[in-house]
């Protein structure tokens, strides 16, 4: 979106929420905000992309180390990335497994957050454990706490993207587990050149048949909106997204953060924060309403 479009977006600024979400995953959030008289504009900043061929080679090498007693997924993207990567490897004759449900047969699946668990179920997996709202804000730390209480599995496949936070894999090693890390996707500037596929029918965040009608801003337009103070609330879902927005311009406070880690980073940056209890659209919209109410 160019400068003219950004200026048009900032008109009628009352009740505007700027969220770091891609258009295909924003329709339900836009509707939840609309019901609360809030209007959504998007600043995706970054989006998940499929693996390059060298990255796919690395994934194949990691998956050769199975079977595992357990597998962990910290996001929907990890599940979709693994599904996409396996399909490509299977099509090339490099994997006997075409789907995660086959690769992980007999493996306990552990998920961070409700949305991740929903995607796992949509792919035919049965999560043995998932962190829930109020449990370390659905974080990797919450999953580690659960696994520590139950006794760490002997071998674990940790599926994540690039870049990623090392707390889960490192924490599992400290608990005595033998950990294999598998990078299943990577983040790229939005719009991603090779967008990540792999979504299962009925998977988490599925918003077919239409995308959100909310405008999507590039970085320049996002900076203009922030400097013009055209957004009443900013909603971020990761520390990196928060840092990127903070670099682009002044943020309205309190910032709506998904998870305790993001909220802690906001406070480190000197920003007041409101923490959403889950990534569900209704919970994000309620947090945005609280933030706007002061």
UniProtKB/TrEMBL annotation:
Sequence segments annotated as region (Disordered): 191-216
SUPFAM superfamilies for this protein: HemD-like (SSF69618)
A GO BP annotation: uroporphyrinogen III biosynthetic process
Enzyme Commission code: 4.2.1.75
InterPro entries: 4pyrrol_syn_uPrphyn_synt_sf, 4pyrrol_synth_uPrphyn_synth, UROS/Hem4
The family this protein is said to belong to: Belongs to the uroporphyrinogen-III synthase family.
Pfam family, one: HEM4
Reactions performed catalytically: hydroxymethylbilane = uroporphyrinogen III + H2O
Keyword DNA-binding: no
Gene3D superfamilies: 3.40.50.10090
Metabolic or biological pathway: Porphyrin-containing compound metabolism; protoporphyrin-IX biosynthesis; coproporphyrinogen-III from 5-aminolevulinate: step 3/4
Main function: Catalyzes cyclization of the linear tetrapyrrole, hydroxymethylbilane, to the macrocyclic uroporphyrinogen III.
Gene Ontology molecular functions: uroporphyrinogen-III synthase activity
Organism, as annotated: Rothia kristinae
Keyword field contains Lyase: yes
Positions of the Tetrapyrrole biosynthesis uroporphyrinogen III synthase domain: 28-285
Alphabetic keyword roster: Lyase, Porphyrin biosynthesis
Protein name: Uroporphyrinogen-III synthase
